[in-house]
Every structure is written in C-alpha cells, then in structure tokens.
Fold this sequence. Notes:
Structural class: mainly alpha
Helix content: over 70%
Oligomer: single chain
Amino acid sequence: MAYNIDERIDTLKECASAASYARIISEINRLRKGGTPRDEAVNDVLRSVPKEDVLYTIIHQEYDAVVRMLGYEYTLEDFKQNSYEKGREEGELRKQTVTIIRMLENHETMEKIICYSEADEETIRTIAKENGLTIHE
Length: 137
C-alpha cells in the first residue's frame, strides 16, 4: 500500500524525516509547476535545504544518489511498460527452456540446440542438469 505523504498529517507530525521529505517534494513540485525543468528544480531545492534539516547530512553525503532518486518520474505508464516487458521476457525464457528440454529429450546435438533455442552452451548445460537430461554431443 502506498500513501500520499502530504495527506498523512499524523505521519508528518510524528516523523521529522517524513516531514522534511514531504517539504522537499512539495517544493520541487511547486517549481516544476512554475515551468522549472525537473533537474534544475531538484538541484535548486536540494541546495537550499538548511543545515538544521534532519535530511541535510544524508542529502549532502549522498547528493548524486538523491538527485537521481528525486529526478526520476516513475509514472503508471512506466510501471505498465516495465511489467509488460518483464512478463514478455519471462515468457520468452520459459519458451526457450521448454524448447531446450524437448530437444534434449529428442537427443538433439548441442550444436542444433544452440541454433534453434538461441541459448548459450552454459544455459543448455544448466537446464539439462536441472532436469536430469543428457546432452548428446
């Protein structure tokens, strides 16, 4: 479950780092709405965090990582695309594995399995071992 931290007043009152983070994000969003490019907004806000801020030390010790984290907008479309690509890759891998197993069961040569499955020799040997199958050289 995810929460919009700006809407969780109880969390902000109890956790100084959450409140600081919410202020930083809110300021970045305000600048972005005013037309400031994302990278510029992130850098401007992070450079203006006061030394008294609970996140100041982390921001300045891990500046590059924080900039990368705050500078990346991960949208629902990104999530859908990544999920689709991951599912497609997993499906292709399963299909490749099934092809290799069938070819091993039919006593095909390593050369032929590599050609048809487009897998490397190490992958084929691993699949054969995991499935108790013999490779016919």
